[in-house]
């Protein structure tokens, strides 16, 4: 039986009301972000964050063990061969462990005020930069001071590594000027933020890639029997696998929107530079 116009209009109105109600009940990305992660998601984050720290610490410990047990330990210019060993050790601390923790600081300490987090982020970056500079000096010195000088910057590892270091330095400079230097307009900071985040993650990925290339390069030079997988080779391969795991966990934690830090009321006061934010 054909419906009357009045009945059709009533049915259409009811359908529109039902559709609107369903859309309103669905959580959008904005509402999820503003409400913050659920308790279950936070627990998952804490577990993954703890695993990430354990993997990062394991990389540094195993790298130190490799250097101490198999590569002759550490020295400075008196022995260029072992002076080079500072390079993988300090790079593992600075450009891997500290760099990863620096870009995770906002999510790992989500309930801290933003201003201390900014200072902590910059301080960890600064410490990583110091380790990186000393590591580069050790590498160049060990090449230049060898009995038969070794050419610099000819391997893929050196090119990728230098690209990571340059990007890291530029990130530190522009980040400091944009977010810690007084007088920069908030609109400019907001515009630059996605760029800062993207190139920060890119620099970390390049650092992991350079570490893997350098690890393989040093293993081939140090182990003529690497093809037979001696104990030293197993150790080197384990360090490489942990580098991949650590890099993947850091990128996952810093890019998953569910784990994004929820803004605190104090952050708004900080952005307006009110005296109460100090």
UniProtKB/TrEMBL annotation:
Classification via PROSITE patterns: CYTOCHROME_B561 (PS50939)
GO cellular component, one term: membrane
GO molecular function, one term: metal ion binding
Cell compartments where the protein resides: Membrane
Transmembrane domains' residue ranges: 47-69, 89-109, 121-140, 160-181, 193-214, 234-254
Main location: membrane
Membrane topology recorded in Swiss-Prot or TrEMBL: Multi-pass membrane protein
A family per Pfam: Cytochrom_B561
InterPro entries xref list: CYB561/CYBRD1-like (IPR043205), Cyt_b561/ferric_Rdtase_TM (IPR006593)
Listed cofactors: heme b
Residue intervals of the Cytochrome b561 domain: 51-255
UniProt keywords, alphabetically: Electron transport, Heme, Iron, Membrane, Metal-binding, Transmembrane, Transmembrane helix, Transport
PANTHER family from the UniProt entry: CYTOCHROME B561-RELATED (PTHR10106), LD36721P (PTHR10106:SF0)
Protein name per the record: Cytochrome b561 domain-containing protein
């Amino acid at each position: 039986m054909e419906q009357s116009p009045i009945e059709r209009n009533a049915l259409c109105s009811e359908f529109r009301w039902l559709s609107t109600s369903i859309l309103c009940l669905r959580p959008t990305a904005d509402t999820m972000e503003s409400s913050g992660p659920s308790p279950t998601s936070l627990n998952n984050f804490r577990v993954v964050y703890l695993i990430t720290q354990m993997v990062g610490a394991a990389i540094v410990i195993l790298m130190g063990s490799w250097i101490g047990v198999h590569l002759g330990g550490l020295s400075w210019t008196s022995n260029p061969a072992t002076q080079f060993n500072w390079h993988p050790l300090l790079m593992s601390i600075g450009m891997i462990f500290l760099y990863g923790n620096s870009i995770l600081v906002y999510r790992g300490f989500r309930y801290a005020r933003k201003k201390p987090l900014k200072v902590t982020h910059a301080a960890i970056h600064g410490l990583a930069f110091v380790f990186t500079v000393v590591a580069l000096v050790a590498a160049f010195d060990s090449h230049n001071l060898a009995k038969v000088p070794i050419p610099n910057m000819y391997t893929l590892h050196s090119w990728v590594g230098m690209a990571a270091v340059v990007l890291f330095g530029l990130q530190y400079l522009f980040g400091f000027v944009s977010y810690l230097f007084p007088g920069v307009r908030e609109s400019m900071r907001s515009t630059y933020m996605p760029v800062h985040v993207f190139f920060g993650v890119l620099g970390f990925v390049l650092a992991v890639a350079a570490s893997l290339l350098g690890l393989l390069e040093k293993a081939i030079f140090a182990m003529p029997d690497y093809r037979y997988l001696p104990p030293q080779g197993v150790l080197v391969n384990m360090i490489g696998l942990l580098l991949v795991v650590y890099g993947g966990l850091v990128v996952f934690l810093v890019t998953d929107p569910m784990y994004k830090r929820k803004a605190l009321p104090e952050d708004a006061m900080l952005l307006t530079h009110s005296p109460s934010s100090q």
